[in-house]
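BUG: 3D viewer hangs when loading the predicted structure for this chain

Environment: internal workstation, default settings.
Expected: structure renders.
Actual: progress bar stalls at 90%.

Input used:
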Amino acid sequence: RIDACDTPIPVLPGQHYSMGGIDVDLQGASNVQGFFACGECACVSVHGANRLGGNSLLETLVFGRLTGEAVSEFLEGCGEDVDPAPLARAKANIAEEIERLAHGKLNAPELRDRMRSVLSDHAGIFREEGSLITARDHLRQLAEDVTKIKTDTTALRYNGGLVTALELPLMLDLALIICTGALARTESRGSHFRTDHTTRDDVAWLKHTVATLGPEGPQLQTRDVDISKYPPVERKY
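Structure tokens produced before the viewer hung:
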């Protein structure tokens, strides 16, 4: 026990927002026909590399409406005939994954905790090439281990363990994308701070990073930033 009158209370940073997300346009449409996203899972990029407090609520209100209107318009043009095959395949894939989890060997919460430790220790607030490479290598090993995870029960109701086991591979995908993007971006910008590249480099890196997952892992592309009104300036306190 700690007596706060005599001993400082230990604290550590906590991650509560991701400034990336699903790549969508101003109407919430992705490059997959019929797939829309808005709010904190999406990236219209109104925040850039440093979100201002409260802006995520405004983003949800504005783009929630725009995306809802776009979805409604899209559905009106689809007609009433819907091919049930894609949904049936998705359900079958999930059922197969749950069956596989019933015969796994590794504990999913333990792997999740290892992933958290790797990111906190090597890809946290202060980053540099060596630590990011270490994080990436550990995450690649975890990505192999995650194929062997198990769940104690495959019950579909109130089963937090099953949710963890299903989410963990996707979390590892995102963790690898974060590390790969941070390694590539040899500058500091917003919340991304590299101790080996401490200044912002607008010549090389005034760009969005767009990641896709391939057989060899995350593949990165860049997209120019539209600075039509407010050019970025150095942040000073």
